[in-house]
Amino acid sequence: MTAHVLAVVTHPTHPLDLRVYREAAPHVLSGSLYDYVLWTTPPIPRLPFTYPPFAALLFLPLSRLPWTVLVALWQTLSVAALLVVAVCAVRLLGPRPGAVRVRERALLWAAAGLWLEPVRHTLDLGQVNLLLGAVVLWGLAVPRAAVGRGAGVGLAASVKLTPAVGGLYLLATRQWRAAVWAVATAVTAAALAWCVAPRESARYWSVLVTETRRVGPAWSVRNQSLRGALSRLLGQDTAAFLAYGAALALVTVAAVWAVRAAVRRHDLLGVLVTVELYGLLVSPVSWSHHWIWCLPAMIWLAHGPLGRRPLSRITLAVWALVTVTRVVPSLIRAESRQAVHPDAYPASLAWPGCVYAVCAVLTLVAVAWGPAGHERPAAASGAVPEQSLADGSLGRRLG
Predict the structure, then answer these.
(1) Whole-Å CA distances, 255 to 98, 173, 364
(2) Tens-place pLDDT, residues 220-273
(3) Residue 200: which of 17, 26, 23, 21 has the closest Cα?
(4) What's the pTM value of the predicted model, to 2 decimals?
(5) Strand partners, 37
């Protein structure tokens, strides 16, 4: 990991999203945050600021740092966040014999994570995904108090809306107080931003929050959500919309099935992986760099309570194949070269462009396809008490 940071310093990347954070943030004070645009080259020639106003307030200090210093600092923090993600994911599995082995396992997965396309893409763009993933996972895996577990989810969702799906984990595990704290944290952050930037807050929450077109072409292979995959396969007509509704219903059933099975096994990482992948599937837009949750998913598939099952091993191998070989970036380059039109998307790109959605669905099935009475793993220290998830005592103690 140290070598990675040194490589970035000596051979700088061009993190466009970090540049947007840095340059757009001061506009929150002048009332023109959502008028800011970073002009780049096709196929996405303009990059606006698309996060809530609270995120811009957090990003304000970035504008004071020299660009080279900021890039090095952001890369360092992102790599450290990757380590936190790996450690907390292993922690949610529950303790295993030998603490040293657990630490070594987490370090190995963090190092392996640097080879995964969503992680690489996040680092290359200077995206905030790893930092927010670390906040969510640390909050769910470490604090004993409900306020700490809920505040992590609420804070991350205040910066970028997608982490809000972590609240489903709190509900599935009956952590009612933590769920209330998550909502309270998010509301407080939004209220603070409203006090500082009322015009931008009103504009964002009343209009811009639902305008997915601002973030880029949802039909592009860059969008690995269920909607993106089906729009490439079936087009944009009414029949495609009905097929999307049916697929969404099936995925929801699979996710509920997986959550119920994981709760009965007291499998906390299984519950979290399920809700996070479900969120990525059903979101209108899930860029490939949003899929950093493939790392916790792969940790569960390798070391979870069902890790010895053939389906888990096959799914792990498919995740590794499509993320390490960087299938999606190859498809993005092909899409750009062919100047693809959304109404006539070539099947040669559309079918391989479903890879992350397929991996996510396979993972949901792998989590669900386990015996209801599977042996309960020992509870992780800190966030996970010894009582049962299924009988509600976990919710009574933590909630």
Answers:
(1) 33, 14, 6
(2) 999 999 999 999 999 877 778 899 999 999 999 999 999 999 999 999 999 999
(3) 26
(4) 0.90
(5) 48
